[in-house]
Amino acid sequence: MSELVQTTCPYCGVGCGVLATAVGQPVSISGDPRHPANLGRLCSKGAALADTLTHEGRLLRPRLHGRDTSWPVALQTVADNFGRVINEFGPDAVAFYVSGQLLTEDYYVANKLMKGFIGSANIDTNSRLCMSSAVAAHNRAFGEDVVPVSYEDLDDADLIVLVGSNAAWCHPVLYQRIVQAKRRRPQVKIVVVDPRKTPTAETADLHLPLKSGSDVALFNGLLSYLQRHGAEDRAFIQAHTNGSSHALTVAHNTAGDTAAVSRLCRLQPSDIEEFYRLYASTPRVITLFSQGVNQSSSGTDKANSIINCHLLTGRIGKPGAGPFSVTGQPNAMGGREVGGLATTLAAHMALDVARHREIVQCFWKSPRIATSPGYKAIDLFEAMYIGRVKAIWIVGTNPVVSMPNANRVRTALDRCEFVVVSDCMEKTDTTAHAHVLLPATAWGEKDGTVTNSERRISRQRSFANPPGESRPDWWMFCEVGKRMGFPEAFDFGSPREIFSEHARLSAAGNGGSRAFDIGGLSDLSCDAYDALLPTRWPIRAVGPPVAEPFAGGRFFHEDGRARFVSTVLRQPRHTVDEEYPLVLNTGRIRDQWHTMTRTGQSARLMAHAPEPFIDMHAQDALLSGVRSGELVAATTRWGSMIARLRTSGEIARGSIFIPMHWNSLFAGDARVGALVNPAADPISGEPEFKHTPVRVSPYVVAWQGFALSRTALVIRDATAWSMAPAPDCLRYELAGRRVFGNWSPWARRMLNAEFVDADWIEYVDRGIGIYRAALIIGDRIEACVFLSPRPDLPSRTWLAGLFAKPTLEKVDRIGLLTGGAIDAGADAGETVCSCFGVGRNTICTSIKDACLTTTDEIGKQLRAGTNCGSCLPELRAMLKANLCLEAQSARLDVAAAAI
Ligand code: SF4
Fold first, then answer.
1. Taking CB atoms and a 6 Å cutoff, what residues make up the pocket around ligand 1?
2. Which residues have a Cβ under 8 Å from the Cβ of 656 and sit 6 or more positions away?
3. Whether the model pTM is above 0.70
4. CA of 328 to the centre of ligand 1 (A)
5. pLDDT by residue (tens digit) across 588-626?
6. In CATH, what number is assigned to the domain containing residue 260?
């Protein structure tokens, strides 16, 4: 019988439990029914985790200046160079840039080395990019970075307000939990506040498509409304808070009536009134917020304006109520607990509190301790650009793709004297700049803990052997720490030993003054650590157990009271003008995660959106002179990129949406980070990913096309390209400006047909510029290419399906030349359900032919939507579109009858 390993998904902050079958090949993955975060459910990304467990592309040995080297040489080189720079320029000339992917134990030793032994706070993390505004808001309001809501609270809430959160795609299992709660109790109301009509908004009772960036006005207006309509909890405010009067005065003055809010947010007054009425009359309210709130130059104020409403109504620290910041990464929360941000210390202690510094330094027995904040992410790369930071160690993240103003980040790395990158992948946009490359273990090989969005600590367990010479990140930091002269402080033999020290530090000098206390886990034996069940903090060693930190109205400012923070609507740092008339909004898509280094390896995940795209309103497209389906260029003051245009009613006029994922391995020119402005929130330092002025213009090419091939191709003469793995081939989208008199030699060269004994079939229509060719070895298709002056090319799905066939039939060969399936039903269309590979055409045909009206009926007929549920919002949209069409045709029939 196979051994089952209980571990945790490495993607988003929901932190789903995963069961991995380690024995036998291939590894199978399923949701852990006993994990309280997901109760057995996984989204499309989690369900496809086994696809990413390949060793292809892995970094297997340490490298020094591009050549393999030994671990001792690599580690000594890192220690020597960091030591040299520190001696010459001081501790603030070196930095670590780490990741919410790291396990808590990795994070702990990295932070200990930088803040306690190097003596600088120059350790920041890619979590700065996704949730540091929430951290700053929590600290301002509560006196500590505490998330006061659990997933179970979502089952109890009567009103769930999702602000700047496309949870249906970004936190799918949590979203499904909300949908289930509403199914069980239809009286539950869902309000979505988002400029885009996302799949999450599709299912909302009320969608408020507010003007991008105007959240503070909406929640100031709510604060004012709540007070004016007697919904405040005076006893709670009086006993447990400070600052309500000033916050209310500001709210009344800036957003004191619906008309003002309507003007500032560009919302219908009736929708605003409905939302405010619902909120005022529902005691159990959860306001779930995410990157749409945080990633803004006023993200901290936005989060505080949300928290203010919960404080005013006393809806916090109680079942089914509270402000709920949901994190994007699997261990952003663990990073916060160990102090992995340049602005925090360790165990939720503060750099600017002398007593906290004393506790930490004493506990670590360290020679020094950082006394002031280090560089936040944007400032860090800027400091490197101007030569202040001279040595950096980047761990498990890809800033050349993910940072704003990413081209400048790339130049900063080029200018940096000494760059170390530890990663599990050999080739990323960032590893290309490393002087020293350190091979890290990946998910499935790592061992430690992570904390999810609801403060639940879970074990991530290994179930596979690390390939080559890859090593855990904690081990690398310890080895470098020892070589820098601190052998005792970094003499850890296992993640358990690190976790134990982390737990002890959380209790040191605490005595209830800090909510983060896991002292009860300090003395876990090896077996107990191995068997640790998912558990929410605090877990104190002494005193009665505390279930919810704010129960009873106790907060963590010195006086035990929460603070209202007065917030004022501020304009984004950069506003639109004639040259850049639209607003660029970036974010995630359903089946990809971060910079695609992992999810990009999965053919089924790539099938949902195989090439980079730009979403735009049809009227804006018209004004910009661009058309849906064509390639366009998006340009800002900071950079440009090329992608396929999609017009839809999902996006409000005046803005465009571009996914954050594509890197240089998957597309020639589609790193959206290069376009994003480097403005950041002045308090949290979180970048403004949701608001960059942008222009969209036609990207003129002479030809467009695609190639499918069993083996990787060397792209020739294409000025724009993207690549996506499909189940049995690689798919390349191509476009170019060079005009060819004869395509044949070019195609033969690119498809590697010149030197093989194979059939070569081709079709040329010189009159309209169409070219098709296929390489067939034996009876199997090996590669094909289709070119046209226009983007209306044959279905890639049907052609990719031919690669699964051991023998091509005659109709397939005819189809190759005619450019489409002879049997219309053979083309399933673009994938909608990744779990069962069900395509759009198949679903549409079934909806029509079998008169399907619900997602359950689609599930019964096609299985689509019956596994992870991530595609359910799209299935609902397709059903809705069909109903609209039917209604339209019924109206036409009636009209025709009347005539
Ligand atoms: Fe992983 Fe999906 Fe769960 Fe997030 S919701 S943790 S991506 S399975």
1. 9, 11-12, 14-16, 38, 42-43, 45-46, 171-173
2. 582, 583, 584, 585, 614, 615, 616, 620, 634, 694, 696
3. yes
4. 10
5. 988 898 888 888 888 989 888 899 999 999 999 999 999
6. 3.40.228.10
